[in-house]
What we know:
Structural class: alpha/beta
Number of helices: 10
Distance between the termini: 55 Å
Strand order of the largest sheet: 10-9-8-11-13-12
Radius of gyration: 22 Å
Strand content: 15-25%
Mean pLDDT: 83
Order of helices and strands: HEEEHEEEEEHEHEHEHEEHHHH
CATH topology of the largest domain: Rossmann fold
Number of domains: 3
Helix content: 25-40%
CATH superfamily of the largest domain: P-loop containing nucleotide triphosphate hydrolases
Amino acid sequence: MELTKLGWNAELNQQFAPHHAKGLVPARVAVEDKHFFRVWTAEAELLAQVTGKSIHEAHRSNAKLPKVGDWVAIRLVPNEEKAVIQAILPRRTQLSRKMTGHGATEHILATNIDTAFMVTAADMSFDPVCLQQMLVVAHESGARPVVVLNKIDLCDDLEAKLATATRVAGGASVLAACALTGRGVKKLSELIKPGDTAVFIGTSGVGKSSLINRLYGEDIQATVEVRTNDAKGRHTTSWREMIFLPQGGVVIDTPGMREFHIWIASEGSKQTFPEIEALSPRCRFRDCTHTKENKCAVLEAVAAGTLPRERYDSFLKLQLEIRFLREAEKRAAWQDRKKSDRVGRRGRNTG
C-alpha cells in the first residue's frame, strides 16, 4: 500500500529523514493493545512492540507510548513479520479525554486525525451534555468536528433533536444518518477524502461500528443490539482500530464509553461556545470571568435574553470542570517533584 493513502506527505517525509539515515522504516499504528501494536508499512502489516526504555519513560502517563494514528519509526526484525518501534513522529492533531477514575490523567483516543465524527443517537439515549463534552474534546484536538445524529429511524421528533444538536454544536456541522437504512451515509463518506483520517467517538450503543460498516460496504466491525428498555448499549469495539476504506481514506473506530470526561481545554472551550467568545471583547475587563463583573457583555446578553440561560449555564459548568482538571494536574506535578526529590536524596545518602 502506498503510504500516501494512509496520509503520508512531504512534511512527514522531512521529519522522518533522521530516522531513515539510521535504517529505520516509516509505519502507521493501526491497532493498540497495551504494549503490542499492529503497524502498517508500505510493504506489510506487522506486529510491533516498544522498547523497554519507552515503557519506563511512560510510567506516569502512557501519552508517550504509540497511539492509533501515530506515525512511527520502526526497526524490522529479520526473517519475521515483527518490528520494534524506535520513535514517534510529532503528532499533528491529538484527540484526548480524561481517563475515568484516574485523577488528572490524559487518555489519548487517536492522533493525526483530520475529522472527528461525534456520534450520538436520536433515540431515548440522546444526551446533549455528553455531546457538548465531545465537542470540546474534538475542537481541542485540532481536527474538524462533525456531529452525527444516528438512528434517526427510531426518532419521532427528529426536527427537535436536530435543532438541539445544532444549538449545542455551535459552528460544527450536524448530519442526520441511519446506519440501518444507509440514509445520510453518502454525505458522511464525502467528508473522508483519500489520504484523510477520521475518528468515530461516542458512548456505547450509538452505532459507530454500524456506520463504519456502511462506509466500508460490508460488516467488518462487530455490532450488537442495544437494550430496548433503556436504549443502553454494550461495548462491542474493545480497542481502537484503524480501518482502510476501499474508496480511500482511513477511519478509526473507538470503544464506546459509558462516561465522557473532557481533558484540559483552552481553544476547545472557546470554539464550543462561539457566541460567548464573540461577546467577550465587549466586556469591560479583559480577563472577565463572565460571572459577577460589572459591564460584562455576556451577563448583559443573558439578562436581555439574547444568550439562552441554558447555554450560559453549560459554559459555566465547563469552566468549572477545566479549572478542576488544571488544579489536579498541578497537584500531580507537585507530587511527582516531591517523589523525585526523595529518590534523589536517597541516592545521595547511599552514595
